[in-house]
Design brief:
Four copies of one chain form a homotetramer. By secondary structure, chain A is of the alpha/beta class. Chain A folds into two domains: 3-153 and 321-334, Rossmann fold, CATH 3.40.50.720; 156-317, Dihydrodipicolinate Reductase, domain 2, CATH 3.30.360.10. Helices cover 34% and strands 21% of the residues of chain A. The first copy, chain A, is built from 13 helices and 14 strands. Chain A has a seven-stranded parallel beta sheet, sandwiched between helices. In chain A, helix 1 packs across helix 13, helix 7 crosses helix 13 and helix 8 packs parallel to helix 10. The longest helix of chain A has 16 residues, at 155-170. The radius of gyration of chain A is 20 Å and the shape is globular. The two termini of chain A are 31 Å apart. The A-B interface holds A 177-178, 180, 182, 184, 186, 202, 204-210, 212-213, 230, 233, 235, 237, 239-244, 246, 248, 250, 252, 284, 286-288, 291, 301, 303-305, 307-308, 310, 312 and B 177-178, 180, 182, 184, 186, 202, 204-210, 212-213, 230, 233, 235, 237, 239-244, 246, 248, 250, 252, 284, 286-288, 291, 301, 303-305, 307-308, 310, 312.
């Protein structure tokens, strides 16, 4: 019988992986996690490879291999790997009886067609797609607690879905009107590989839009808000900062509402969900309020007609947008307080 | 008879004023401009007060006084002053026979009610409101060339109006659909006065929305695009950078169009207007492309249905958004090449 | 008998105060701290005033008053106040039997003359100067554990003293040679008051030196390294970032040493001191390695002659340079693990 | 007979190359420059490849080839290429009768041994080393005006040499004391190639030292200041900004001097040299004062003993540190005003 508190982590080199390591090393309910890297380079411990971890507690670093993970006794594995790698590793680890939390996009869709159409790749893991829980605990905590496989959501998608879901369920969004989501992200969301457009000089003092009508987080948003493809307009921008996503979301309401009504809707929807913080009507969160946290902060302004609503949804793309939410999912799988290690 | 090439500048201490000084000092068709400051402090020349101008050519700095400007022989005066100050100074200088280019919001509306309703101040200068030309030369070059008073537009307004005007005139914007303008600006647009929220630490690694449904550039956009107040949603955000505005603008088209059609519309509209650069369909400008220039760059992406159009409009808020456009207006008033000193 | 685990905090509005609040709220060995503000504005809890604390646990916010603190039962008080305020409050609180950790410069010198000469103020608290422990626990842990009053050191001073102290004690620094300390700091070290030179636009893309031969941390460095005033050259620079100090320190060695010798000296000196991390000879720490931590990282490069040594000493000015070190001092005063709440 | 005003530019893709293109396109005394790229990709003009140049005037872009440059009629060629490429191209172009301004390190040393020892490469161009003028016009204007080959200096070296040269020539630097040069640079100085350590996230909110006792600009500084290798300590740091170098330089004076004496020394030394701006004794330049200019600004503070001098020397590493100085050298070679196109 595998112990779910024995943790394996695959792929610690990226920004999400490093943040995950930080959160797991200080998590009070876990055994020391073991890290696996394709390129472990003979170094035996995490801090030798990543000197910023010295003094945080030691953890073993081992060459990646499914057999090694299987025989290690680990009960839960985090995959902080590209989707191609996750697609290959996850089924093997699941078949060996481990529970898997995958931070990539490989298992985020119930439909293989959706995956293939947006990722331009076959979806070989179709057998597992139906079983994966979509890892936003504020929406799917029961499924996550019971799941063998959790697909940790996209960072943009988390910020947009958490802001829209209460409105969608309320039926207040006017039919046949566009919902515009203008999302802005720091550079750590774009990954760690050196790229010309992520060179410091290219992004410093710059701001640019990218991926219009083509961003891979689009189908996640459609699936978990229920908006139609023709209703949603989703855009993404790069900002000259390291961490954080701020989504400005434009919705038309019908019938018109008051500020207190909208606030009450959100407060009720997220009651008992401490990681989503609702701001008072007319006040707005900023990126700095959520940087280095696992919070998603949501605020809004309603115009005087009560019809035009602008929402601001903020989170840290490495926190609630990736590693933090992954640990929150783990906490649900272990049946412990969801904030554990996240404050 | 006053010489319009003799220039007075009031209010050089702000960011727009300093940029204006830079552009005027290197302008090849002007006499040396004279700078006026309420707090001239007995310093006799610009570089003594602002050491960054040493080596750029000398220019006198004098205590502010309408009489002094009148008797100096200047024919054209730039007001880089707050709107209360401009409202007071401009009529006196106009009555003395000078031409005025005002960078504040004091004379941007034909209607005194509009001014009062957005600026919460009486509009004592009502006699002059009707005569002021709105200083976007790509739209109003004839009026500007002939004007005694030019109201230099708001920085956000310039970026939005230049992007929307061709679409409005084409009649392609679907009726009863919202036009969403999500604008993002660097910190120099917020002025130079020390403010808690503009402290380096407060804005660094931050992004925040502000002024929703309340920004003073809204009525300029309404007046010069012809959109109705219920159709326009205009939001503004602060970015952690010094210079530049990027507006992401969401429009629904009816009937649907193709990318080449939209590109052709813009190219035709701005033919012979070198300071507006149109990007090829599907390619998008970035802030860095326009920083430290007088260009407004416009690009767009159209979705596959041809109905949903996302425009990106970029400019430097101190260039085309303020001082650069002011000099471009001066060039039209002098009847010389509009790019003079702006490359 | 007062309980030292009952904590009062005066002055939470500055950057050090907010960081201190964060560290104390999550500290596992303390009662809920009570916060005192001159301008408490009738708000009853911390998160109401500072919304970024919502979800971190509640804490009372009360109007500042010595009587209120005295009668609250608190045993230890942190003063995150300007030195004039600390100078006034500390003696009253000490006389009431509280232990005091003061983050200002008011009690950092044994000599009243030194204080007066650098701070241009009388030193009315002379009676307490001799009793104050200088709060670098790696050097003075015994004094701190027993102290009623701890003077938390300056941020620059901490980075320089920790790097120089082992060399001074070894006797390796060549006589009559200068020791140059070129320190670079992020903007949060300059405080939170809006100032023209701390406006985002003024510091963005900028770097500047300030306070040459006049910085108030100089006498702390002289006193705790034993260098003479003519030997030390200490300069400070502002960097366009929020948190962190990096000091580059230039020392001439006599007799010449090898890299392993220097590394061994530092490792031995800081053995059992986990918050100072020594880097391997020839490798250098960076600001990012210590941001948001309580570590001071020290690395060095020695030239081929073994005579010219360049040390790099990094810390977070709000962590080990202020609030973190204050909590580390508290831990010593309470007799608990010094890293508690600091990882 | 070749016309020196007909310009060829090799290697426009790097940051120095792009800045050079900007300066040459607006230069009033030149024919339209022709740009050569190894990878010209069939595009025929500069703005097609680099859209930020649209509206700046057109210029041809051609595939790189020595024969093509030779037959183009160009009289002067700029090499904005890596030193290996410059080492190969320059002799061929010189032999064809062109004058060459090389921005790389290939021809900066009179001694082939120095080049080989620091660049770890053979110096095949030894025949040309003796003939190259070192391109700091404030020191070597006569040599530059007459030269067939100008070696444009390193950016760090320019900032340090300009600050130290007057002191060296005055004989005021105390014998046997170290001269410490602590230089800080923005990221554009490190080149445009994507590198892990230049990723936005790695440099944002970071500062780090690099290249201690190993930086390739060291031998330039030694040769043009006359300091001995044991006297100079030169360190380099990366800052989170795009453009600019600030060098803090620590000198011991013997005999002691006064502030006015030091200021007078510098003013006399740089009299008639408008691109070096001397600050009043006790005032210091900042990076923002020189960004996007060709100025080198020098200020200093002297301690009360008159013995310890701290100099601040600032320039834009792409301006006076590279492309701007290259154009300044061209102006001397053409016998025209040295500031032409540089204001």
């Amino acid at each position: 019988m595998r112990d779910p508190r024995q943790i394996a982590v695959v792929g610690v080199t990226g920004y999400s992986g490093l943040e995950l390591a930080r959160l797991l090393l200080r998590h009070p309910s876990l055994e020391t996690p073991v890290f696996y890297l394709r390129d472990a380079n003979g170094t035996a411990c995490l801090a030798e490879r990543f000197p910023q971890f010295r003094g945080w507690g030691e953890a073993p670093l081992r060459p990646l291999g499914v057999a090694a993970i299987r025989s290690s006794g680990a009960g839960t594995v985090f995959l902080a790997t590209p989707h191609e790698v996750s697609a290959e590793l996850a089924p093997q680890l699941l078949n060996a009886g481990l529970r898997v939390i995958d931070l990539s996009g490989a298992f985020r869709f119930h439909s293989a067609e959706t995956f293939t159409s947006w990722y331009k790749l076959p979806a070989p893991h179709a057998a597992w797609l139906g079983e994966a829980a979509y890892g936003i605990p504020e929406l799917y905590s029961k499924e996550i607690a019971a799941a063998r496989l959790v697909a940790n959501p996209g960072c943009y998608a988390t910020s947009v879905i958490l802001a829209l879901r209460p409105l969608v369920e309320s039926g207040w969004i006017a039919r046949n009107t566009s919902v515009v989501c203008d999302s802005k992200s720091g550079a750590s969301g774009a990954g760690k590989d050196p790229r010309r457009d992520l060179h410091f000089v290219e992004l410093d003092e710059n701001c640019k839009a990218y991926g219009l009508f083509a961003h891979r987080h689009t189908p996640e948003i459609l699936e978990h808000t229920g908006l139609s493809e023709s209703q949603l307009v989703f855009s993404t921008h790069l900002l000259p900062l390291a961490r954080g996503i701020l989504s400005t979301i434009y919705v038309t309401l019908d019938p018109p509402q008051t500020g207190p009504d909208v606030e009450a809707l959100f407060r009720k929807f997220y009651a008992g969900r401490p990681m989503v913080r609702i701001w008072r009507a007319g006040t707005l969160p900023e990126l700095q309020h959520v940087a280095h946290t696992n919070f998603c902060d949501i605020g809004f302004v309603l115009d005087s007609s009560g019809r035009r609503l602008v929402l601001i949804s903020c989170l840290d793309n490495l926190g609630k947008g990736a590693a933090g939410q992954a640990v929150q999912n783990l906490n649900h799988m272990l049946g412990i307080e969801e904030q554990t290690s996240l404050q």
